[in-house]
Amino acid sequence: MAIFGDKKESKKGGKSTTAPRIRHARAAKLAAGKAHEVVRAPWFSEKAFIGTEKGVYVFAVPPRATKAEIAGAIKEIYQVFPRAVRITALPAKRKALRTRRGSGVQSARRKAYVYLNPGDTIQLG
Question: Residues 82, 74: contact at Cβ < 8 Å?
Fold first, then answer.
C-alpha cells in the first residue's frame, strides 16, 4: 500500500467497498433547437464502436462548443445525463488525391467523448 494511497484496508483485513467517485458535468441550458447544432452527428469508427460497450459515445461537435453545452445537448436529445465529457481536436491533414491536382487538405475536425453512467445507453441511428 502506498503512503498516499486512497484505498484503505479495513481492520478485518479486507479492502473497503466504497463506491467509485463519479464526476458530474454541468449541463448548460440551450436555446430551442440548438442541441442539434452542438451535437452534429455520431462519430462512426471502429474505435468508437468498441467504446460503446463501455458506455463511451463519440460525437462530432463544432469548434466552439463547450463541455457544458455538449452535456446539455446530450441530455436534451437522448434523455440521459453524461457523467463526463472529454473533447479532442483533430488537425487538418494533407491527403493524396491520385489525380492531376496532386494533393488536397482534409479539414480539421473536433469530437467529443461522452461518458455515461453504468446502465445508461444511447440508440445511434
Answer: yes
Domains in the chain with CATH codes: 35-116 (3.30.70.330)
- Give the tens place of pLDDT for each residue, 41-59: 999 999 999 999 999 999 9
79-84 long-range contacts (CB < 8 A, ≥24 apart) are 80/116, 80/117, 80/120, 80/121, 80/122, 81/24, 81/27, 81/117, 82/25, 82/114, 82/115, 82/116, 83/22, 83/23, 83/24, 83/25, 83/115, 83/116, 83/117, 84/23, 84/25, 84/114, 84/115
pLDDT digits (tens, 9 = 90+) for 102-123: 899 999 999 999 999 999 999 9
